[in-house]
Amino acid sequence: MLIHRSPLAKTLNLCLRLRFFSQSAAAVIQEDPLAPLSYDGFTRPDPKYAETILAIPRTSSGTKISKLERKVGRVPSIVFEQDDGQHGGNKLLISVQTNQIRKLVNHLGRSFFLSRLFDLEVRPEFGSGDVIEKVRVLPRLLHLHSGTDAPLNVTFLRAPSHALLKVNVPLVFRGEDVSPGLRKGSYLNTIKRTVKFICPADIIPPYIDVDLSELDVGQKIVMGDLKVHPALKLVQSKDEPVCKITGARASDQKKSK
């Protein structure tokens, strides 16, 4: 007997089949090297700080040129090509605005600025509506004045989706208020503030959470314990310590006597 189904019934049936297929084949889809990467529940950059960095081309370099650029409120900068996190090329000399870089560094913090992707637009001059080149970049190096913290120069890396970039990802420590060791009067010995990973450009973490909530006296967290996206590759040894709960400070022990 031929059964005629309404369009709605056919649509619901198709949705159920697609849902079943997506659940049963999830592992296969995730392992597809051509599939676009996503953060998959891991920490993603805060859109609040998404900003296009404006730049103008610079025809020459050198100490005198750099001093002149800084004098007029610009930061001499360079953009490199870096696909595998190790080699440079395709150099582009530019200058960016001192006030914009200073604002971003102040809002984010230096380490967080260096682990965040930005769109960069190169224009003939600041205030022009014409765009010579627009590229996604990762700040790689940032030099600040030792006295004023004014940005002196910035190195950027091009960050297309296929790029693998070496990034010092900042660590954010959480759970100090409930850590058994810290509640007993011990203290946190922070050994690392950043950890180096080779990251696909599309999933560079803005930071990595370090959970201290179950850490007791004498216990430590090593790099291999950090929970990160499986596509990230740790550059340093997985056994290298990140932090440790250490016994009471000597000054605290004297006070208790």
Automatic annotation (TrEMBL):
GO terms for molecular function: 5S rRNA binding; structural constituent of ribosome. Keywords: Ribonucleoprotein, Ribosomal protein, RNA-binding, rRNA-binding. Residues 165-248 form the Large ribosomal subunit protein bL25 beta domain. It comes from Acer negundo (Box elder). GO terms for biological process: translation. GO terms for cellular component: cytosolic large ribosomal subunit. The lineage of its organism: Eukaryota, Viridiplantae, Streptophyta, Embryophyta, Tracheophyta. This is Ribosomal protein L25. Residues 55-156 form the Large ribosomal subunit protein bL25 L25 domain.
